[in-house]
Amino acid sequence: MDFFIQLFTDPLGFYSAHQLLISQVGINALLTLSMYITLNCGMLTLANVGFMAVGAYISVLLGLNTSVPFPAAMLIGGLAATLLAVPIGLPVLRLSGIFLAIATIGFGQVVVGVILNVPATGEGQGLINIEASPATAINYIFGGLVVVAFVLWRLRGTRLGQAWAAIREDEVAAEAHGINVARYRLIAFVLGAFVAGCAGGLDAHLNFIIAPSEYQFTRVVGVLVFAVAGGFTNVVGPIIGATVLTSLPEILRFARDYRDLINGVVLILVILFLPRGIAGGRRPGGRGRLMALWRWPRSGPATS
Amino acid sequence: MALASQRAGDIMSGESTVPREPLLRLTGISRHFGGVRAVDGVDLSVPDGSLYGLIGPNGAGKTTLLDVVSGFQPATAGETRYRGEVVNRWPAHRLAAAGVARTFQTVRLFRGMTVLENVLVGMHSRRRNDTLGQVLVLPALRKAQQARVTEARRLLDRVGLVNVDDRLAGELGYAEQRRLEIARALALQPRLLLLDEPAAGSGPPAAAALRELLMALNREGLTMILVEHHLKLVMDTCSDVAVLDFGRLIADGAPQDVVDKPEVVEAYLGKEGAAGAAS
Amino acid sequence: MTGRLLTQLAAQAPSFYLQQGLNGIFSGSVYALFAVGYTLVFGVLDILNLAHSAVFMAGAVLALIFFANFGLPFWLAVVLAIAICGAIGYGLDLVAFRPLRRRGAPHISSLITSIAVALIFVSLAENNFGANSQRYPASVAPDASFHVGGVVIDQLSILILLVTLGLMAVLAVVIRRTRPGRAIRAVAENPRAAALMGINVDRTIALTLVISSALGGLAGILYGLSAHDISPYIGRDQVELKGLAVIVVGGMGSITGAVVAGYLLGLIEVVALVTLGSNVRTGVAFAVLFLALVLFPSGLFGRRRERRT
Fold first, then answer.
1. CB atoms within 10 A of CB B163
2. Please, which contacts does A250-255 make with residues 24 or more away whose CB atoms are closer than 8 Å?
């Protein structure tokens, strides 16, 4: 309760007391938006944390070994993730449904495997990032979040946004109306990688240490949970999902030991009673139906 | 067949009597799934400006043939020429952008989008890439968007869908969904429109409206291939008819000639039925 | 560097390779047993049940609690733990899957609820069992071993191998020959047609989850016995992702495929460990997974799917 009382009666005090939490909310919102981009185009890809790791390590290594200033290093990290997303996406995006999800999980694990084996990354120990600056990171994080959210919001109704929506709704019909499905899926994947890579650089600027243990499967699952719980039918949903679920442990401090248990129960309740997520609205058959459209392929013979 | 194509050619060119290259020419098209020959060595010429009926019993391979023509399934053998070009290896989206539009046997709308949005998506390939400008809120693009919406409304009006712009496509009735598919396909401004059972689920008034629509479109010069079980619709509207049975083309030509052929009657009614009909 | 590695490897006696190969087969047994349940649920429900790894953990933890805290004989502790895991499978369907199925919810919803169930079980284990790794007392498992031509084979590994192969044989017979087994196959093929044939689909799905979870729990116990490592995190760290790799490479839903791929993963890991070192071990499994997916999109034992309009 104190959490909310302070939030409303003493916002400045709340800000200084919870600066780290607020920054983490921003990072998680960015990551969730990066997943929203691909979900919104009908793909469940779970490579986001892998791209995040690439962005984080590249920006930290640049900061430690060169004189590149932080925001530039972060953008270079994001671009590196983008460039990597092209050769990964070309073969992998031919898969669909659960196979696509699993292949991208595989990519994330390979990234962690590479980090563990390349000496420059500090291997299992990770790197100490003396360049980190949590106080300035928070500005970049929210600046970035505003830009990303604005662009994604504006994309709806553009040629690109409409093509993504059409692919999500029905790939075959989209293709039949002149939409190059493979290309637009790749654009979504690559753009998602850019946002995730930048989020990685920002996250590294917030913490004085980065280590491979930060980029495990659990974290991707967390991001997916934010997206689904918040609802990914519009730009607001992912942000709300990330905000609520990142703050929940802080709000439930008194029950710290049962944090995951409560998370689990909340999640089941959201899925059962708010099928389109917290911000997804209740309109039956509405835009929330999007989720229903990517049925995963059966292993048996195809039936029409 | 030759007669029909010449007639269509005359209408289009106005003078020439030399048979022109048809809009679509299939030569020896086959599509096999393992041992199953869904389409088997089909030769077909669809003249520019024709309304070509494709009929045959269930499972004859009509939808598979449409899939091959529209690039959704590769032909196992044979050649597809569209506007004189070999297009066998073209992906479906490229064919669509080149003017080959289609509807689907099982309706495939963007169910979670509004009726209007469905039609707007159909304009994808002729829409300038305005993504960056729209993101930056350039006012100049407003006008273009307005023009698209007006055009989409006109198309919806044309297929008889009024006052449903903002309904979700998935909420429409079955026959309405089929008409929305036609409007969406027309938004492509196609040269060749492939219709897969557009009359399915329509009552007599709706079927009559559909007939009017098809004939009007055809008068405007749109070439169509119509797959339909509703034989009367085919007989009333089509300039040419081809009959598929077990993947093979068993007859083609002017509608009345084709339906009287004994092999066609046999394919539809079975051997005994054919004998009964003859006696 | 490669040269040195090769000379090192060449210097090893043949028995070294035999030993490593056997180790791969033994760890492969656990993967296979785990993956069979995983893939069975996917085949029937089209759902990736991410709670399966939590059930694996629960099997290992419950058996230890029953034995150490309640003083039950070990065999009884094992039987009880497996029974409870089966019951968990039933509860899982009731809470996480059935309501969504009724609603025709998309598969991603079930994926998320299964994650939620996993979170709940891991949290319960953390609070009631402790976060540290524990082990079964040495007295519970056969610890004799014998040497054959320089290769050490312990009875426990043999036992695990036999139990796995035996259960797979039983499962194959159940699925092919018995009434409930035929119902499971029918539902996997087409739930609607199965319902029309008079099969109780809900009950069949629940049964699938019970079988799957009981197998998962047993896999956890066998893992605990052989790896001497029981903690709330063994499911997440040891089998969750590797199990995925196994069922994908085996072809989603294919039981034979899961068994073969389980053993294959055990062997691949050993090869990676011997040639490249322990850091590379997990990475290699996923590099293989990644390649397998790109090269054989429907798995080694999966059937090809045609694109339909």
1. 8
2. A250/A3, A250/A18, A250/A21, A251/A3, A251/A4, A253/A3
pTM score, two decimals? 0.86
Phi, psi for B82 (deg, rounded to 5)? -125, 125
* Six token digits for residue A203: 């996250």
Which of B75-84, B129-138, C37-46 bottoms out in mean pLDDT, i.e. has the lowest? B129-138
What residues in chain C have per-residue pLDDT under 50?
Answer: 1, 303-308
Flag if B108 and C309 touch (Cβ within 8 Å): yes
Could you report the per-residue pLDDT of A143-170, keeping only the tens digit for each? Answer: 999 999 999 998 988 899 999 999 999 9
Residues of C in contact with A106 (CB under 8 A): 245, 286-287, 289-290, 293
Chain C CB contacts of A177 below 8 Å: none
The first and second tokens of residue A300, run together, are 């048996």
* Whole-number Å distance between alpha carbons of A138 and A144: 10
Cβ neighbours around A120 below 10 Å, total: 11
Q: How confident is the model at residue B207 (pLDDT cuts 50, 70, 90)?
A: confident
Q: Please report the DSSP string for A261-285 in residue order.
A: HHHHHHHHHHHHH-TT-TTS---TT
For A:167-206, CB contacts with C below 8 A are: 172, 176
Confidence of residue A229 (pLDDT cuts 50, 70, 90): confident
Q: Is A91 buried (19+), middle (13-18) or exposed (0-12) by CB count in 10 A?
A: middle
Closest to C299 measured CA to CA, from C288, C283, C285, C284? C288
- Choice among A218-227, B7-16, B55-64, B190-199 with the minimum mean pLDDT: B7-16
B13 pLDDT above the threshold of 50: no
Give me the residues paired with residue B25 across strands.
Answer: B45, B81
Determine the length of chain A. Answer: 304
Taking only the tens place, the pLDDT of each residue in B112-129 is 899 999 999 999 988 888
Radius of gyration, CA atoms only, chain C: 20
Q: Is B243 within 8 Å of B42 (Cβ atoms)?
A: no
Angle, CA A250 vertex, CA A244 and CA A253 arms, to 5°:
130
pLDDT value, residue C286: 77
CB C270 within 8 A of CB C24: yes
Phi-psi region of B137 (alpha: psi -120 to 50; beta: other; left: phi over 0): left
Task: List CB contacts (< 8 A) between C106 and chain B.
Answer: none
H helix runs in chain A, sequence order: 2-9, 11-17, 19-39, 48-65, 70-92, 97-117, 134-155, 159-169, 171-176, 181-206, 217-230, 236-251, 259-273
Q: Return the residue matching tokens 């760290």.
A: C237
Tell whether C95 lies on the interface with A, counting CB pairs under 8 A.
Answer: yes
**C306 interfacial to chain B (CB closer than 8 Å):** yes
CB A111 within 8 A of CB A57: no
The pLDDT assigned to B157 comes to: 95
Instruction: Give which of B172, B188, B180 is closest to B210, Cα–Cα.
Output: B180
Tokens of C67: 């034995």
DSSP β-bridge partners for residue B252: B242
- Rounded to whole angstroms, the Cα distance separating A89 from A183 reads 10
Work out the burial of residue C39: count CB atoms within 10 Å of its CB; fewer than 13 is exposed, 13-18 middle, 19 or more buried.
buried
Q: Is the pLDDT of residue A125 over 60?
A: yes
Using DSSP, state whether C131 is helix, strand or coil. coil
Handedness of CA A263, A266, A270, A272 (dihedral sign): positive
Angle at which helix C201-227 crosses helix C14-45, to 10 degrees, equals 160
Q: Rounded distance, CA C50 to CA C39, Å?
A: 11
Structure tokens at B13: 């060119």
Q: Does residue B240 contact residue B253 with C-beta atoms inside 8 Å?
A: yes
Pairing of strands B77-82, B248-253: unpaired
